[in-house]
């Protein structure tokens, strides 16, 4: 089954996270469906601009989840199977740097309130996103966590 081919012919997820620690994939061949669970931990970027009190963290986590799910759900892969994406965003304001230098077993995203920041992902599991971004931008950046390149 072409279970990972979500987008313009790119083979994603299994190349990005072969151990399944950061992205969980469940393929139901009988129902012709694929469920992808993306878990993200967000935390404040330590840059002197942001304070832990400057952002409503639970609201932001909900906005990120909704953006990812609203954008990525409803697609079919090239084999005609339905693709469902479940986003789970955890908030951890107890630190301001990455806990895992190589991304470890989770996706870690720093949040900044810098008005000039452009959100990005690097290493397929880490990045810095602006807390003021749109749901579409959060969905776009989550695509990079799933291994998708930019396709402008």
- In percent, how helical is the residue content? 10-25%
Q: What's the mean pLDDT score?
A: 81
- Count of DSSP H/I helices: 2
| Total number of beta strands | 7
Unreliable stretches covering 5 or more consecutive residues: 1-12
Please identify the structural class as seen in this structure. Answer: alpha/beta
Distance between the termini: 28 Å
Main β-sheet, in a few words?
A: 7 strands, mixed
| Beta-strand residue fraction | 25-35%
Shape: globular
Rg is 15 Å
Entry keywords:
2 helices; seven-stranded mixed beta sheet; alpha/beta; 152 residues; globular
List strands and helices in order, with pairings:
Layout: E1 23-28, E2 33-44, H1 57-72, E3 75-76, E4 82-91, E5 107-112, E6 120-122, E7 126-130, H2 135-145
Parallel strand pairs: 2-4, 2-5, 5-7
Antiparallel strand pairs: 1-2, 3-4, 6-7
Helix pairs in contact: 1-2
Structure commentary:
- With 152 residues, the chain is of the alpha/beta class.
- The protein has two helices and seven strands; from the N terminus they run ββαβββββα.
- Strands 1, 2, 3, 4, 5, 6 and 7 form a seven-stranded mixed sheet that branches.
- β3 and β4 form a beta hairpin.
- α1 crosses α2.
In short:
This protein is an alpha/beta fold and 152 residues long. The protein contains 2 helices and 7 strands. α1 packs across α2.
């Amino acid at each position: 089954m072409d279970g990972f081919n979500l987008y313009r012919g790119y083979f994603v997820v299994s190349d990005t996270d072969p151990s399944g620690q950061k992205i969980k994939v469940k393929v139901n061949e009988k129902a012709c469906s694929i469920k992808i669970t993306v878990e993200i931990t967000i935390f404040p970027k330590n840059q002197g601009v942001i304070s832990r009190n400057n952002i409503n963290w639970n609201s932001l986590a909900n906005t990120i989840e909704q953006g990812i799910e609203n954008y990525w759900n409803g697609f079919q892969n090239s084999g005609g199977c339905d693709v469902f994406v479940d986003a789970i965003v955890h908030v951890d304001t107890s630190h301001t740097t990455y806990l895992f230098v190589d991304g470890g077993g989770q996706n870690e995203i720093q949040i900044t309130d810098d008005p000039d920041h452009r959100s990005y992902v690097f290493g397929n599991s880490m990045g810095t996103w602006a807390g003021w971004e749109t749901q579409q931008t959060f969905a776009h950046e989550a695509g990079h966590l799933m291994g998708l390149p930019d396709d402008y």
